[in-house]
Structure formats: structure tokens, C-alpha cells
Amino acid sequence: MSTQWNPDLYLRFQQERTQPSIDLVSRIELDAPRAVVDVGCGPGNSTQVLAKRWPASELTGVDSSEEMTAKARRDYPDRRWIHADVRDLPCEPRYDLVYSNATLQWIPDHETLIPHLFGMVRGPGALAVQIPLQEEMPVRQAIRAVAARARWMGLMAGISRLVVGSAGFYYDLLSPVARSVVIWQTAYIHEMDSHASIVTMLESTALRPYLARIDGEPERHEFLQEVTEEVSTTYPVQTNGHVLFPFHRLFFIAYRQ
Ligand SMILES: C[S@@+](CC[C@H](N)C(=O)[O-])C[C@H]1O[C@@H](n2cnc3c(N)ncnc32)[C@H](O)[C@@H]1O
Predict the structure, then answer these.
(1) What is the pTM of this model?
(2) Is residue 227 domain-resident?
């Protein structure tokens, strides 16, 4: 299995994935940003949220996955989609809003990345970011516990943790260069119909690096089964049979002079 993104599987939880981007957009205090870029636009769901708030803006979506940009181009042919790694884009102030929802956790070295993204903002625009805080969630520990079992350990060696800084880390990077910085953190309590649904939701994101290490479909199924069993020891079942899955996310918006 390759490490390719699967847009259809990703969009099975479209509502859960898109709500944070709606919340982020609603707190951006810009009236009419002319040029807007969605960094890690995926299949275009977050870009669509930007289009609803600012229909007259020039919107560009950038994503390093060919599958994702192809899907975005098919579904929203009237927008501009760039297949590229954001780190390869010029660090020049071309955009009134640089926006990124649920992407930066996949890119290491935020000490370099965040100034790069802020350098793409022209004044008095903004950089607006939402990052999942998955390492803090019990489901990550469940995945790691299974990956560390003798059966899987050899295959899973060296998978790196998602690197996300604290609120203070982003504040210290941005406050010396920004007019103002707004930061908040929250948990979305997703109502899932079973523990298996939690695992299915993460199959297209956090579990990708693990599944990519396993060759056969039956073996991948066994791995997911073990993760589901581990997850079921951590998240209780509610009286109606559903399972609540708290999903932690960090947000920040930095405004340029
Ligand atoms: C979880 S999806 C987020 C999609 C969408 N923004 C949303 O809100 O649902 C993360 C996306 O980031 C993209 N990505 C990861 N690293 C990237 C990079 N270095 N440059 C551009 N895109 C990247 C992936 O290809 C993937 O489509």
C-alpha cells in the first residue's frame, strides 16, 4: 500500500473534518481579502468554506498530493489548484490570507515553516491555522501500543510522531512579527456509532503511515482490528450504544502590520 491520500475515504467524515475550518474562518477579522491561499487544501472542502465567506476573493488551493488536487479540480473546476509542497512556494507577500486547516501536523520543523507561511502574507493580512492535537489523544496511544507489539514492531520501526508545538511555541514565533496573535484550543466531541468508526475516521489520516508499512490486505485488516480492540478499552460506550470521541484542536490567527 502506498502512502497516497484517499480523498473519498477522507470525505466520509466530511462534517467532522470541515467544522473546525468553518470555526476558524468565522474568527478571521478581514473584510475582503483579495488573494487567499488554502495550504494543504485536500479535496477542496476547506477551500469551499473560504469561498462561502469571501465569494469575490481569488482562491488558490495548494496540496502536495496529486490525488487530492485532482479531486479538488474535478469538484471545483473554477478555482486555481496547485500541486506542490508548500515549502517550495516562494516566501513572498502575495496573499492577504494564508489559511491552513488540518495540515501542518504533517510537515516537520515548524520553527522554519511558520515564518515561511507568515512571509507569504502581505499586510494587513493574516495567517490562520488549525492543527489537530492528536498526540494528546488516547487513540494515538492505542495505535502506538499496537504498533509496539512483537507482531508489528519490526514493520513499524521509525514512524515519527506528528510534530505540533504548544500554544506558547506559536505565540513566541509570531508575536514579535505580528500586529496581534489570537490563539485558542478546543475539543470537538464526535458522536461515533462504534469504536470501529473511530478507527475508520483515522484510517485516511493518522493511520496512513502505519498501514503503508503493511503489505497484504488481510494483515492490514488484522492491524486495524487490534487497534479497534485497544481503542475500545479507552473510550467508554454511552447508554445509547454510541461512543464519544473527543478530538482536540489548536487554532491561531496572526495579523500582519
Ligand atoms: C488532513 S488533509 C486536510 C484537508 C483540508 N484542508 C481539510 O480541512 O479537510 C491534509 C492535507 O495536507 C496535504 N499536505 C501534507 N503535507 C503538505 C505539504 N508539505 N504541502 C502541501 N500540502 C501538504 C496532504 O496532501 C493532505 O491533503
Answers:
(1) 0.93
(2) no
